[in-house]
Amino acid sequence: MIVLRSILFNLVFYLNLIGQMIVLSPAYFLLPRKKALVVPKNWARSNHWLFAKIVGTTFEVEGLENIPKGQGYIFAPKHQSLWDTYALLPWQDDPFYILKRELTWIPLFGWYLLKQRMVPVDRGARGKVMAAVMERAKAEMRSGRQLIIYPEGTRRPPGAPPEYKYGIARLYRDLKVPVLPVVMHPGLFWPRRKFLRYPGHFKVRILPAIPPGMDPDDFLAHLVDVMETASDKLLLETVDANPHLPLPPTAAARVAELRARGV
């Protein structure tokens, strides 16, 4: 049954993406930029409904009171799955990404990105190019937008040892805005590089914002400590609440280690 539900969900998920992108393009491109965000936000909500109805997977968001009000900030979630690239858009007022420029070359999808003033970058860029990217990010932040960036850079399986990149410390130093850490384990239900989708319920936990002004090295050490401690706690909660889940080796090993330590 899980295989059939997974196949159906994957099919409907991509049909939903393509269909909405085509049908809603006239409204999206005619609306002012910020008002046009209603299109991707409603697309995200429709995916939540499909995930719940087809697969049987639901979630809840905790810590919404920690979101800074009336200012720009860096939104820094754990990254485990395709799910977390779009799922929290409805809770962001006016988000943007620093993303590889090749994504903006994709017909229609890339035009959607450019409409929202995403900041494209050549991953091999150095010097003046990166300085220009930072200036763009600062300009967007001054208008009160939220930069979404994954501290570990790429998707990591649940329970894997942390591999935080120094890039977020540079952004924290240069942008001078709060950083909002977020932990979650969608990778247990929507694993990376697999087509299977598993039913259950999980939580997204938004942690208190880290204010600007710390030394970048101290900030990074603090971010890793805060996020990994919260992530471990939430991993145990998620596994206990979903005993049917087939855990990936990284998660199984981490759970066993935490249990042995009496966490």
Automatic annotation (TrEMBL):
Any GO molecular function: 1-acylglycerol-3-phosphate O-acyltransferase activity
Pathway: Lipid metabolism
One Pfam family recorded for the sequence: Acyltransferase
Alphabetically ordered keywords of this record: Acyltransferase, Membrane, Transferase, Transmembrane, Transmembrane helix
Presence of the UniProt keyword Lipid biosynthesis in the record: no
Domain Phospholipid/glycerol acyltransferase: 73-187
Residues annotated as transmembrane: 12-31
GO BP term, example: phosphatidic acid biosynthetic process
Name of protein: 1-acyl-sn-glycerol-3-phosphate acyltransferase
Organism name: Mycoplana dimorpha
Organism phylogeny: Bacteria, Pseudomonadati, Pseudomonadota, Alphaproteobacteria, Hyphomicrobiales
